[in-house]
Amino acid sequence: MNYTQEVTVSRHSSREERKAALYQIYVQVLERQPYAFERKQLVKAEDDFLHDKIGVKRFLKALGHSAVYLDEFYHGSSNLKFLELCFKHFMGRAPRDRQEMRLYCDILMRDGVQALITYMIDSEEYRKHFGCFTVPYSPQEETYGSPKAYLETFILNRELHGRRGKVLPTMLWHELGLTCDGGNCRLKNSLAAPTQPPARSQGDFLQMLRSMNPSDLEQIASALSADQREKLRQALMQPA
Q: Which domains does the chain have, with CATH numbers?
């Protein structure tokens, strides 16, 4: 996949051009093509798009609100990991900082999943980069807020879904000094498995993270004692 490829349709686009755009939408948002049973759930939106009744933006809302998208990325993930994936799929980038994550997490917790996706697609940033007819992609920014912002976008856009687990977003496992390739987290430059099993299972830990506010997770990432931080790392190193 070309993460900087711009694919645009218009009122004058042929059916074949719209089919190509539809393929690219699924690559960008689902990170794959839908399975046959999933396509049945999307058939109305697909038909409207291919017959020029709706544009890319309206199709994205239908896809993002669908059970197909939510079953793949929302159910089974922590809220913050889901938010990171929404940024990847609909904005083509990683979240810029914790403040932005807090803003969108508040929307998610207050108004729900569909409102979050609608807010993102209706944002001024989305309008500026993609309008109504361009498939989201990773736009080349003139400047980035920091080298970290560039690195996290670069990594996230090339990360296979689930490769680094479904709990911690990139910015937090960076701050914890972890590498999470393969879905299991460990200390960087450490190949040894933990000698003692953690007291909390990965499933329990996932449930705990789901119940936390962003401010709680900030404390985990930056305000824990050395002993507490090590316990957290050991818990994350436990296979799911």
A: 1-143 (1.10.3130.20), 173-237 (no CATH)
Read off the DSSP letter of residue 162.
T
Q: Write down the pLDDT at residue 138.
A: 85
* Per-residue pLDDT, 189: 62
pLDDT value at residue 35: 97
Cα separation, 198 vs 72, whole angstroms: 28
| Residue 64 CA: distances (Å) to CA of 98, 154, 155, 182 | 23, 23, 22, 26
* C-alpha closest to that of 10 among 19, 22, 20, 18: 18
Structure tokens, 78: 């922590």
pTM: 0.72
- Terminal-to-terminal C-alpha distance of the chain: 29
Residues of the chain with pLDDT below 50 are 1, 191-201, 206, 223
Any residues with CB less than 8 A from the CB of 169 and at least 6 apart, and which? 80, 81, 83, 84, 95, 101
